[in-house]
Amino acid sequence: MIRASLWKISGARYYPKNFEKQFGPIDATENTKSPRDIDGHGTLTASIVTGQNLPGAEASGGFAHGTASGGAPMAYLAIYKVCWVLPNKPKAGGSLCFPADILAAVDDAIADGVNVLSISTGAQKPLSYDGDYIHCCISCHAKQYCCGVFCREQWPGVFCREQWPRLEDRKNAAPWIFTVGASSMDRMFLGPLIFDNGSQNMGQSVTPYELVNMHPLVRAIDVENFDVVSDEKGQRLDGSLSPENVEGKIVLCNTGK
């Protein structure tokens, strides 16, 4: 994990107004009514943007050894929390971000003197160039005050050099936004999947462990908890798999985290 120290945070706000208008008071067992991050997403994005240089970083097993760093390690952070976990839904089910709360946060950020907005919100399905009215409003408003807006690209699925994503599948195509798409790496970590009939399927893995014995191969969608919503089935999101059903098995996922 890239370090994003607390001294980097110059201020923090949160925006539950429209969420509470729709769903009632925030339940403290599901959300923290504060700018604090409860599911790791905010911490991850903060580290990507301003994480300090961390020499000797590596994945488990010594893969990709080197110095990890955020995009602007000397920058400071102002936090604006606009997304909240849906009532009676697991955190893996995602959060809801009301447009009015997003726009209010952007207004405050501009008034606070923020120079760059890094926004990590988006629709589940791709929107047309002129259909993403929220990001259009944000970026148009921010550019008038010389505030840059950055979003990460959200191409669905996993792809490689031989299977490039299609432009029409982009999720952050609104104008006046710097859209950053990290679509590939300059190295591969190969790991074969060997079947009991002797055939192999070459894949990629960063695990240092080698399985000696054969294990059953199951689809994630067949070993999930009953409360996983339909559009998230098969993705192995946090908390979605049944521990009893996956023990001792190799799980095949569509995509996942």
Classified by CATH, the class of the largest domain is: Alpha Beta
Order of helices and strands: EHHEEEEEHEHEEEEEHE
Strand order of the largest sheet: 7-8-9
Q: What's the alpha carbon Rg, rounded to whole Å? A: 21 Å
Number of extended strands = 13
Instruction: Determine the CATH topology of the largest domain.
Output: Rossmann fold
Mean of all residue-level pLDDT scores: 79
What is the CATH superfamily label of the largest domain?
Peptidase S8/S53 domain
Which regions are unreliable across 5 or more consecutive residues at pLDDT < 50? 157-163
State the end-to-end distance: 15 Å
Helical stretch tally: 5
**Strand fraction band?**
15-25%
Described by strand count, sense and barrel closure, the largest sheet is: 3 strands, parallel
**Helix proportion range:** 10-25%
CATH architectural grouping of the largest domain: 3-Layer(aba) Sandwich
How many distinct domains?
A: 2
The helix/strand class is alpha/beta
Global morphology: globular
Pfam families: Peptidase_S8
GO molecular function, one term: serine-type endopeptidase activity
Family: Belongs to the peptidase S8 family.
Keywords: Signal
